[in-house]
Amino acid sequence: MYMCIYGMDSPGGYQLVGRTLPIWNKYLKNSQFSTGQPWLLRFFDQVRFYPVSEQELEQQREAFREGAHANPH
Q1: Who is most buried in 2, 14, 22, 45, counting CB within 10 A?
Q2: What would the pLDDT profile of 2-34 be if each residue is shown by its tens digit?
Q3: Which intervals hold domain Carboxyltransferase (predicted)?
Q4: Does pTM top 0.85 for this prediction?
């Protein structure tokens, strides 16, 4: 089974499984991104999805944008 993770909101042909934190950051405000590598995921990273409320997702996205997000899982 394959799944595609889009780097930004966009139309596409895959079924939408859910939404995530940003995985692309060309502005490098967040310490999880490094110079020359504005993407969050690396080869062979394992991604795990879990359910959250709309409010929790928005709070996590805001914290991530500010560089204050800590992965709870």
Answers
A1: 22
A2: 666 665 666 766 666 777 877 777 766 666 767
A3: 1-29
A4: no
